[in-house]
Design brief:
Layout lengths: L2 H8 L7 E5 H15 L4 E4 L6 H8 L4 E6 L2 H8 L6 E3 L6 H8 L2 H6 E5 L2 H10 L9 E6 L4 E3 L4 E3 L9 H13 L3 E8 L2 H4 L9 H30 L6 E4 L5 H4 L7 E4 L1 H4 L16 E12 L2 E5 L16 E4 L4 E2 L9 E5 L11 E5 L12 E6 L2 E7 L10
Parallel strand pairs: 1-18, 2-3, 2-11, 3-4, 4-5, 5-6, 6-9, 9-10, 10-11
Antiparallel strand pairs: 1-12, 7-8, 12-13, 12-17, 13-16, 14-17, 15-16, 18-19
Helix pairs in contact: 5-7, 8-10
């Protein structure tokens, strides 16, 4: 029985659109992440999962420890539901959430917030000024892991922190240490130009060579620069953790002695954008089904909805992938539509009204912003249905 038959059988009682998670694929992906991490713990990036029961399931597996949240309200919500060791990976400007954190000793002990400048410290102090008694706020310093060359004329990587040098990091660590009510707990640096960019893209050979050369140079730069930064910060303050990497760079990042843990999230679902890496091969674990509602031509079907583009620089790579049956593609003049999506190809000839077409989202967690429920499939059986954040009335964005 192929995957399409399994999924159709397991979900025969459901009416599409709906989303599923293949548990065997999820477990295989998790096991491969642990193998690649070579003994270092993996912090689970919740933005790529966005389902509390699935987060609990993953954290129950060997090799995973802690959550990397994407907003402070999300972290507070998770902490109130039993999650511990939560790192908010992005700075917050939510005054109400900061006041709630400072006024809740249990949450403050479980949550670490991220800063990359004294402006973040000033903002937080103002937000919690009226909180009495005030709990100590745990701080993580975000370091810029981008690759810069040619005197700053070339840059690869996400535009995040301005902290790049050991001296800048040590100065910020000293500023944190001098402020009552704050404690530096950790350091993080996300190398998006390696972890988030597949080194086997469906592009021309020249681009691929340039990309791989950049990633090799960036890796060498990070080994030295991140190590020196960590050493400089440790002269000022103890660090409980140093976090780095992502799904696409796990095996590279864990080689650095300065790194104590890596982050991963997309690797659990293995969305379309993660097909283009040489060092690992994942299993598509999260899919959504849309029903065929028209047959405009012999080699064309139309499915309901489907306009679920992923965030990032717009283009074809951000569209969901028509996955099963294999061989379907978008009509070039329509693409993925708001209320209907035409699909063309020989595979369309065998589809009838009411049949399902299975898609993969380009990115991982954004699928859960479209659906309230994830239906968990084991083999050819539906074993459980669990809510997404959206299904619990939470979006956190």
């Amino acid at each position: 029985m192929d995957d399409r038959q399994r999924y159709d059988r397991a979900t025969a009682g459901l009416e599409p659109p709906f989303a599923i998670v293949d548990l065997a694929a999820l477990r295989a992906n998790a096991a491969d992440l642990v193998r690649r991490a070579a003994g270092k713990p993996i912090r689970v990036a919740s933005k790529s999962v966005r389902s509390r029961p699935l987060l609990e399931r993953v954290l129950g597996m060997d090799g995973f420890r802690g959550v990397m949240a994407f907003t402070l309200p999300e972290a507070l919500w998770l902490a109130a539901r039993g999650f511990t060791d939560i790192l908010v990976a992005y700075p917050t400007a939510d005054r109400h959430a900061l006041a709630e954190l400072a006024g809740n000793a249990e949450a403050a002990a479980r949550i670490t917030v991220t800063v990359d400048s004294t402006a973040h410290l000033d903002f937080t102090e103002a937000a919690v000024a009226e909180v009495h008694p005030r709990s100590e706020i745990r701080i993580c310093m975000d370091i810029d892991a981008g690759y810069v060359a040619f005197g700053g004329k070339f840059r690869a990587g996400a535009l995040r922190s301005t902290i790049r040098t050991p001296e800048e990091a040590a100065d910020l660590a000293a500023a944190i240490a001098k402020r009552p009510g704050f404690r530096l707990a950790g350091l993080m640096a996300y190398e998006a130009q390696i972890a988030g960019m597949g080194d086997a893209p469906p592009a021309n050979a020249a681009y691929t060579r340039v990309l791989r050369a950049m990633q090799a140079l960036s890796t060498r730069d990070l080994i030295l620069r991140r190590g020196r930064i960590v050493n400089a910060v440790r002269q000022v303050s103890d660090l409980e953790f140093v976090n780095g990497g992502g799904t696409g760079s796990v095996e590279r990042t864990v080689r650095e002695k300065a790194i104590t843990e890596v982050a991963a999230g997309s690797g659990f679902f293995h969305p379309r954008l993660f097909d283009f890496y040489r060092r690992f091969t994942g299993h598509p674990a999260a899919l959504f089904a849309l029903p065929v509602v028209r047959r405009p031509a012999t080699d064309t079907v139309t499915v309901l909805g489907g306009g679920y583009p992923a965030s990032g620089s717009p283009g074809p790579s951000r569209l969901p992938q028509p996955y099963l049956p294999a061989g379907l593609r978008y009509a070039p003049d329509e693409g993925a539509g708001e209320v209907q999506t035409p699909l063309i190809g020989q595979a369309a000839e065998d589809l009838r009204i009411g049949d399902r077409v299975w898609f993969r989202h380009a990115k991982a967690g954004e699928l859960c912003e479209r659906f309230d429920t994830l239906h968990l499939v084991e083999g050819d059986s539906l074993v459980e249905s669990v809510p997404t954040y959206r299904g619990e009335g939470r979006t956190f964005l």
